[in-house]
Amino acid sequence: MNVLLVRLRLIGDVVFTTPILRALRRRFPDARLTYLVEPHAAPVVVGNPHLDEVVVASRPDAPGRLAADLRLARRLRARRYDLVLDLHGGPRSALFAWATGAPRRIGYEVSGRGWMYTERVSRDRRLRPRHSVVNQWDLLLPLGFDPPDPERDGTEMPVAPEAAAAAAAKLAAAGVDADRHRVIVLHVSAGNPFRRWPATSFVELIDSLVRSGDGRRVVVVSGPSEHEAARRIGGEARARLGPRAHGVVDGVDLDLAELRALMDRAALFIGGDSGPLHVAGTSGVPIVGVYGPTLAARSAPWRPARFATESVEALGLACRPCDQRHCEPGDFRCLGSIAPARVAEAAERAMARTR
User: Fold this and answer.
1) Interaxial angle between packed helices 161-173 and 256-263, expressed in degrees from 0 to 180 and rounded to the nearest 10
2) Which sign does the torsion angle of CA 68, 70, 72, 78 carry?
3) CATH for 2-143?
4) How far, in Å, are 53, 60, 238, 304 from residue 270 at the CA level?
5) Among candidates 166, 167, 206, which has minimal Cα distance to 186?
6) What is the spatial distance between Cα 327 and Cα 156, in angstroms, rounded to a whole number?
7) Class for domain 161-352, per CATH?
8) 3-state DSSP assignment of residue 309
9) Which long-range contacts (CB under 8 A, 24 or more apart) does 225-233 make?
10) Which residue has the higher pLDDT, 230 or 18?
11) 81 CB burial (10 A radius; 0-12, 13-18, 19+)
12) Contact yes or no for 167/262 (Cβ under 8 A)
């Protein structure tokens, strides 16, 4: 059997499809499994042991994308897939699925493009407390799969030896020894302002974490577009800490593969509901997730319960969850209302479980 899986766009969404890869390989051990992904999230699945091939589409904003998509569509059709699973459901992914001409194409029942699939699965558009892994797993139901179980099928992202070596070298250059220090990775950026915890809250959290334990090193990381913001947060935290300022490190520029490698050496990861949180969830590192407009029930790490996971959420807000297109109160209070002390307490609980 020749199978194509399509999941475009965001890192976290691709991470949440990885339990499906293991399940497909278990059911169809001799199948050829190919994954179609965009460049930003490709490191999540490159090297996945259950895949035979990863095909990388051009970026949505790439010059000449239309011509590149037409060439890719012809390539996909020539592969003669038996089964296509469109795990995305967007216009571009639906077109790729339809272009394959596969005799069996499974996708979501979406107005205007459901006809591109041979089998359609209902998708509830409400923001209900149902995990994203379960939502995407629905596409396996026509194939007779049992419901997903994080104990058996957690998310995964392989660690390349070269990424592990690069991450270790960058930490060492910043004066951090993962064998001697308790490394706390703090991710401070987010894809949109709805998921961005205030900088002052991060500074207060860092101050608490460093003062609460000797030998800790808080490594402040961010997305590529927010390195300057991460440096400001690190600088303000060092100014507050005075003699303990060496406990804060920023400016360590890690790519996605290196960030995943770092998780295997870290004592804790803290971050909002964004790609790095979900990458951390593919490891066993203790995690504190901070959720504002989104729900932990939808986006918390999908992994065995033996791994420490704490979720800190805004409480008592009628406007939560939201579609993150317009802040009804206008002040992003869902994240602003989360006190640094709550996150610090969750961090100490998570680290205590692994001592």
Assistant:
1) 80
2) negative
3) 3.40.50.2000
4) 32, 30, 18, 18
5) 206
6) 33
7) alpha beta
8) strand
9) 225/189, 226/188, 226/189, 227/251, 227/253, 229/188, 229/189, 229/199, 230/188, 230/189, 232/199, 233/188, 233/199, 233/202, 233/203, 233/206
10) 18
11) buried
12) yes
Round to whole Å and give the CA distance between 39 and 14: 11
- What string of DSSP letters covers 288-305? EEEESSS-HHHHS--S-T
Tokens of 109: 């029942």
Phi, psi (5° rounding) for residue 218? Answer: -90, 115
Topology match between the domains 2-143 and 161-352: yes
The domain locations on the chain are 2-143, 161-352
What pTM did the predictor assign?
Answer: 0.94
- Per-residue pLDDT, 263: 96
Give yes or no for residue 305 having a pLDDT over 70.
Answer: yes
Question: How far apart are the C-alpha atoms of 203 and 198, rounded to whole Å?
Answer: 9
Mean pLDDT across the chain, nearest whole number?
93
Two structure tokens written together for 164? 């592990």
Cβ contacts of 210 within 8 Å, gap of 6 or more: 216, 218, 237, 241, 244, 247, 248
In sequence order, what E strands does 7-95 have?
A: 32-37, 53-56, 83-86
